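Researcher: Next entry in the queue.
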Amino acid sequence: MIRKVIIVLVTVFLVACTNKKELHLNYNNGQAFGTTFSIQFIDERKQDYSKSYDSIIAVINNSMSTYQDDSDISKINKGDTTITIDNHFREVFLTSKNIFKETEGAFDPTIGILVNAWDFGPKGKIISLDSLKIDSLLVSVGLDKVSLQEDKIIKEQNTTFLDFNALAKGYAVDVFASFIENKGYKNYLVEIGGEIRGKGINVVKNKPWKIGVEDPNFDNTQSYSKVISLQDEAMATSGSYRKYKLDEHGNRFAHIIDAKTGYPHRSNLLSVSVLSKSCMEADAYATAFMSMGLKRSTEFLETHLNLQAFFIYENDNKKLETFSVNGFPEN
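Model: Structure for this entry, 331 residues:
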């Protein structure tokens, strides 16, 4: 009897080992949207969706890249009124409209003409940029001057320049995440240029996905003083410490333009990281908060509890301080 029990147990053990499949951490990376991307997901076998990723990147670029002369958004910016926008453009535009309204214009994708004028964009540098020139450019700024009628973008001012770069990377992260989920994967991490969305855990290591909040280093080095777990949410960061200009007095001007004044943003706020369910929204709000500053942003977040934020700023003594809102995780 004992021998039979041992045989049965051994048989069960062997069957269990045979049925247990090895899990693989599938990893792909590459170039996209002027930066890099990486995608990780867990499967029982090696998978390669590189061609699908390339197709997604191409479609989004053809729709919304201001760096691509023949994209839909570039043609619209040149005054072409015949362009029929796709679903990618529609979703980003409608989200932009909503956040533009909620932030009272602090987030404004039509600021692109001034981004270019200050030479932060792909082209369009204006050498002599005085107050009169800025005032003339501000006439065409304001997302309330742009509307969607059926599948066409209608601009009140022909010179209005649309630029979705403040949320396009976040949107692309969401598109990649949807692609992975539609393949049936429940554990993944998608990252494009520092904008990230994760779901589940790293099953291979049996640990949560860990991501770092980058320190605002002006010397282009990378360091992370805060590392948090990311599960079923997205994080995006906007900062003024990489893309900025110095005036003749050594003052820093961020690449984020104030939509009301037309001038680059000057603030003690160096970085904002936002957690949300959607990476597109996290991306847009992070940009908006940089423009709004610490005080206005924290007041805004009092009525938007679905957003968590982490601010890094300089105090009066030029020392770095941090501030967490709505339960942004400590680690």
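Model: The radius of gyration is 23 Å.
Researcher: Noted, moving on.
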